[in-house]
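for the writeup, i need someone to sanity check this before i put it in the appendix. the sequnce is what the collaborator sent (i think, or maybe the updated version? ugh). structure was predicted straight from it, no edits. if anything looks off just tell me and ill rerun, i have time this weekend
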Amino acid sequence: MAKKQLKQASSGLMSKVIFTIFVLIAYRLGSFIPLPNIDVSMLSSIEKYTKSGVFGMFNMLSGGSLARMSIFALTIIPYITSSIIVQLLTSSLPSLKALKKEGESGQKQINQYTKYATIIIAFFQGFAIANGIGASGLYLGDESHGTLYQKLSVALTLTTGTMILLWMGERITAKGIGNGVSLMIFAGIISDFPKAFISMFELTRSGALSPIQLIFILAIFIVSIAMIVLFEKSYRIITVQQSKQVSRFGGTQTAMGTGQLPLKLNPAGVIPPIFAGSVLMLPATIAGFMPNSTNPIIHFIAGNISHGQPLFIAIYVALIYFFTFFYTSIVFDTKEVANNLRKSNTFIQGIRPGERTQEYIEKLTKYLCFIGGSYIALVCIIPELMSSMYSQFYAIGGTGLLIVVNVSTETIAQIQVHKLSSKYDKLSQKM
């Protein structure tokens, strides 16, 4: 009987995995469908813009869809942007704060606002891409720079593509193994990894890299993965005590119990490098569109704020630290945590409830932000240091690897949860 239940649980999990794989395959196939009215034979003219800068980051997150100008060129990026904006507003606007406290119904309303914001952001980003396509003369017909109708059709197609991907992600969350939106981003990033490894082996074969250097790069890649797993699975455990009123011998007595309050070693996740990269790469992207400019500022940006340059690395690290502290302070309300502990008659050992608890958690959070920011900065500057050493840009670290490893570990944990829940459901039915 136990074997039969285990087989049924495995079958249910397998169907979720197969469903997820089919959705991801559909996403990757769709990423090769070109936008309407685009001359695909001319796409090589924009390839240089999608290898670095902000467009390079977006192209990496989209799995090359932006360089191919496909209907999924925006991927889930507008949804991520709107989610962050709504999350920040939820921490500052009283009306959204009240919605958040309403529980599941309030969260559904916030999710609806996020989708509305996604449509608006996707349309504006899509129209910006449509204008960029026109500036590059990629439209079909006599008007290669595009008519208003052609630009609007591109913008609406990109917006629709984003919403389709969002729907696919929700289907994976509901009927697949979970983490739908994250898996969509994961699939896009991981699709370019084989190309990066093939490129490194080609450089070794041509003599640009020695075998020793290749082994060194691969070793750093493995160490980076191990470090990401270690830090993302690490917590600072705070021991708490909780007092409960229990009835004994016809009277009421106070019983004390101990518990744990875990705080992530990296409280900000992958948001800091995404923000830092977008801000830092914007000037380099603008300079890339003006290669023949005689402006000294453009020359300075092109020569110093580019991959592998010392100034680029220094500013990148500073921005990662800044966004780690800023984002954590917005989304992690230490006052609310302290109040919730006090309301549940829970206190940290040796710390008075209320304001002292809040101060203690704030101090500890800043300490964790410094550790988390240092770890993120180290992972993200590895490809920059490799660029300065070998005059090539290597995707062996940075935001892409952080996302891939995080989503991989979360997906494995989600699969384990599905296994356990299926097992307990079968046991409960038997009882």
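The chain has two domains: 1-185, 234-394. The first strand starts at residue 235 and ends at 248.
thx in advance!!
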